[in-house]
Design goal:
Length: 421
């Protein structure tokens, strides 16, 4: 099967020079990454978390960028049949396919364009933040003048049925209050709030539903986007993805999860506990069904044992009460709006929140780098949080990329158990 797909979304109008740049990038070393991410999008909604299985099932799939006078088309060779209905590609997949083209090929080409990004320094905190902003703006994710209503939801992709249904009920309550959702775009706790919010929005006849899926290349192939995502954004790496979450968020909810969820919480606490962020208004709620109470108790104890009691003032734990979670988020939105107005900051992108370079620099979780992490209480809490986040990042990536995670686990846990403040 060979089919041609026209652009839908932010890639629907390109200059001929931009098209030429895209074609050059598509034939570069990035092709395999572009191909694998496109395949993941075409498998949106599949329950697999095994990228090898997905890639082997469609090993004959190919994708080509074709030039035309009005821009580009994509040529799909042997694509998954489930991506089509009566021979026509599903529209959400069509839009997300061009999001992959935009974020993998177009953004990469723009980053290496010395005219558009002169003297770009990816070790400069300011440059990194501006790059994150440029990627989000290019994706049309920053809506000027729109009142705060974007709730970021974090949690595990392999949660149990009770946790999934609870996250869905929370999503429904958020949707009834006309709040939008941003998640990591995969299954589990990333899908459930979107599914619930879609019902809540429908009940309220809310027409501006936004379900943003924020991912990065090493994740999307292992966790294809869920079918609810209507704005897919692929950030260059884990750290820029986390920064994009925080800067686009007006509130954050954390559901039960694994080491990746712990990484996200530690990243956020490393930001909120920084002295420069004392005045920031960013509500954070940890929540789950009553069966997850022990999970949050252990997580809370770990945070207080490592980062101290002061960390607790930055989050609230609500067990088995979806309506209260949504009420607290809705009640916080005017406070977020007022805070942004007082600092003359944008509603759509939080420029004023301080993210230290330790949290922005990509971390390569080799065994040597993991063993060299400074997991000592004799340092500022925001610095310790950054290193703890790196530790859990190593575990998370070791699991998602199918690396040998057992040696990494023992290295981290041996160090973590010795931390006391």
């Amino acid at each position: 099967m060979i089919t041609h797909v026209s652009p839908l979304g932010s890639m629907d109008m390109l200059s001929q020079l931009e098209v030429d740049m895209l074609k050059r990038t598509a034939s570069s070393d990035l092709y395999q990454l572009f191909r694998n991410c496109s395949l993941a999008v075409l498998n949106s909604g599949s329950l697999t978390d095994n990228s090898k299985e997905l890639l082997s099932r469609f090993e004959n799939f190919e994708i080509n960028v074709l030039r035309r006078e009005r821009g580009v088309k994509l040529e799909l060779i042997n694509p998954p049949e489930d991506a089509f209905v009566d021979g026509r590609i599903i529209r959400s997949l069509q839009a997300n396919l061009f999001a992959v083209l935009r974020d993998i090929l177009f953004v990469y080409g723009q980053i290496h364009n010395t005219v558009r990004f002169p003297n770009l320094d990816l070790e400069s905190s300011v440059h990194i933040t501006n790059l994150v902003f440029s990627i989000l703006r290019n994706a049309r994710a920053l809506h000027v003048g729109e009142a705060p209503n974007m709730i970021v939801c974090w949690g595990g992709h392999s949660i149990n049925e009770n946790e999934y249904l609870y996250a869905r009920r929370v999503g429904t309550q958020l949707g009834l209050r006309e709040l939008n959702i941003c998640t990591g775009c995969g299954p589990g706790a990333m899908e459930a709030p979107m599914k619930g919010a879609a019902v809540g929005h429908a009940q309220q006849r809310y027409k501006d539903s936004r379900f943003i899926g924020m991912t990065e290349p090493s994740i999307i192939a292992a966790e294809p986007p869920n079918p609810l995502v209507n704005e897919l954004i692929i950030m260059p790496d884990i750290e820029k993805r986390l920064e994009a979450f925080v800067r686009i968020a007006h509130g954050i909810i954390i559901f039960p999860g694994g080491v990746g969820t712990a990484e996200e919480l530690l990243y956020l606490l490393g930001i909120l506990m920084h002295p420069d962020n004392k005045a920031q208004v960013l509500p954070l709620i940890l929540t789950g069904p009553k069966e997850s109470a022990d999970y949050f108790r252990v997580l809370d104890e770990f945070i207080t044992h490592t980062l101290g009691e002061s960390a607790r003032r930055h989050y609230r734990i609500i067990i088995d009460d979806p309506a209260e979670v949504a009420r607290q988020m809705k009640k916080a939105m005017p406070l977020v709006k007022e805070s942004r107005r007082e600092t003359d900051d944008a509603y759509s992108f939080n420029w004023s929140i301080r993210i230290s370079p330790d949290l922005q620099m990509p971390f390569d979780p080799t065994h040597e780098n993991m063993a060299n992490l400074k997991l000592s209480p004799d340092q500022p809490v925001e610095v310790l949080a950054a290193d703890l986040r790196r530790a859990f990042s190593g575990l998370s990536r070791g699991t998602s990329k199918r690396w040998a995670s057992r040696p990494l686990s023992s290295t981290v846990l041996t160090n973590c158990t010795a931390i006391r403040r």
